[in-house]
Amino acid sequence: MKRCVRVLLTAAVAAAPMLVRAAIGCTLSNPARDLKALYPEMTSYREDVRELPKFPDGPALYEALKARVGGELDPLYEAFDTPYTLYSVFKGETRIGYVHGVNVPGRGGVIQVFVAVDPASAVISKLVFQRLESPGGAALRAKETREQFAGLSLADFYKHDYYATADPGNAADRIAALRRPVALPEVARPDWDATLRGLRKNLILLDFFAFDRRHEPFYERAEAAKKRPASN
After folding, report:
1. CA-to-CA distance for 5 and 7, rounded, in angstroms?
2. How far apart are CA 216 and CA 161, in angstroms?
3. Is the pLDDT of residue 107 over 80?
4. Predicted structure pTM score
5. Pairing between strand 16-26 and 94-106?
6. What is the pLDDT of residues 187-204, one digit of tens each?
7. Which of 61, 62, 127, 161 has its CA at 20 to 30 Å from residue 219's CA atom?
8. pLDDT 10s digits, 61-83
9. Alpha helices in the chain (DSSP H)
10. Alpha-carbon distance 82 to 217, whole Å?
């Protein structure tokens, strides 16, 4: 799994051709093999490319992505024209999973994070790294690290935002309960943070592309909590 889709644009400046690099998206290097590894019962799959500029409300969706990820978006890996590939996995005629991946900048280079989610519940079944160049790569790829993310959904991230404002330390905060691998070197801590960001971004985009933004009420509740006056 090592392919990144690179989109190149050409422009002419002062009659001289100039190469301009545009947004970079992520695809599985061998979808048939990689999806079969995630879903051994798979009989077929479908690829759908999603591009925000092609949505009627594309600019608004991009601003929504920025707000929900938090902070600025990377101009190369998270640009408005970044192409996203949504994989639908089938057993016979039944869709049994969605798989989606994103690029996020890490300490040692770009990190490619893919998630497999249940098409009914939108809950993560597996997280895998397609590309991870990090001094803490072994610790991040470890089974016990990745298994922490199984069972989470976008609702858990939005609830985390709510708890951080309204009820810090609440035992129901599943994101706060995630633990960095003990074996992760301190120098690789940015890659742990990038993994969480990539996971969150994956789930937000899946909410846009596959789940009709069903998790918006959780986001709105978290935003409302931020606007409440602090109690004395």
Report:
1. 7
2. 13
3. yes
4. 0.89
5. unpaired
6. 999 999 999 999 999 999
7. 127
8. 999 999 999 988 999 999 999 99
9. 31-38, 58-69, 137-141, 143-146, 154-166, 189-209, 216-227
10. 26
Which is nearest to 139 in space by CA: 100, 195, 101, 177?
A: 195
The residues that bridge with 217 in the sheet, in sequence order, are none
| Rounded (10°) CA dihedral 86, 92, 94, 95 | -20
Q: Report the alpha-carbon distance of residue 178 to residue 62 in Å, rounded.
A: 28
Q: Which residues contact 134 (CB under 8 A, 6 or more apart)?
A: 106, 107, 108, 111, 140, 188, 191
Strand partners, 183: none
Please name the residues in contact with 103: beta carbons below 8 A apart, sequence gap of 6 or more: 4, 24, 25, 26, 77, 78, 110, 111, 112, 198
Of 121, 122, 142, the residue nearest 132 (C-alpha): 142
CA distance 58 to 78: 14
- DSSP symbol at 147: G
- As given in the structure block, the two tokens for residue 32 are 């048939």
Length of the chain: 232
